Amino acid sequence: MNKIRVRLADWHKDNADIQRIRNAVFVAEQHVPPELEFDAEDPGAVHFLAMEGDYSIGTARLLPDGTIGRVSVLKDWRGLKVGDALMKAVINEAQKRNLKQQMLSAQVHATAFYERLGFKVISEEFLEAGIPHVDMVRDSSEIA
């Protein structure tokens, strides 16, 4: 296996890869309706692609207000720290943009993953696209 790297993506140029990953993870696996998966926030977001060689295996996005979302890794690459690499790149970019606080809505089963990265649960459980979620926040000024 090649070393996994994460790069900034261009919504227009890399759209096929971003859509392929998100469709596989959210639409096909988790049955999220496509009209909920792709929204008006995508064109203005900063997108990321996790790569193995020249093949895109994961994606995430960062909104201008510090909201992280659409974190997804193709099934065959899960458990290989791809999500960690993606999230570290997103957090690093948020900090470069002086976004002191990063927020996300996490699927409940993934809260421990985000807690390891410094996020804290700040809401009760709620349903989003029929999947249990919680809101989480990470304050860069509190983390050394």
Regarding CATH, which class?
Alpha Beta
Q: Helix proportion of residues, in percent? A: 25-40%
Shape: globular
CATH architecture: 3-Layer(aba) Sandwich
Largest sheet: 4 strands, antiparallel
CATH overall fold name:
Aminopeptidase
Quaternary state of this entry equals single chain
- Count the E strands: 8
The ordered H/E elements are: EHHEEEHEHEEE
Work out the count of structural domains: 1
InterPro entries: Acyl_CoA_acyltransferase, Bact_Acetyltransf, GNAT_dom
Domain N-acetyltransferase: 4-141
Protein name: GNAT family N-acetyltransferase
Organism: Pseudomonas boreofloridensis
Description:
It is a single chain. With 144 residues, this protein is of the alpha+beta class. It has one domain (4-142): Aminopeptidase, CATH 3.40.630. It is built from four helices and eight strands. The protein has helices at residues 15-29, 34-37, 82-96, 111-116, and strands spanning 4-9, 46-52, 55-62, 68-73, 101-107, 120-121, 126-128, 131-139. The protein has a four-stranded antiparallel sheet with strand order 1-2-3-4, with helices on both faces. A hairpin with a 5-residue loop joins β3 and β4. The longest helix has 15 residues, at 15-29. It is globular, with a radius of gyration of 14 Å. The N and C termini lie far apart (32 Å).
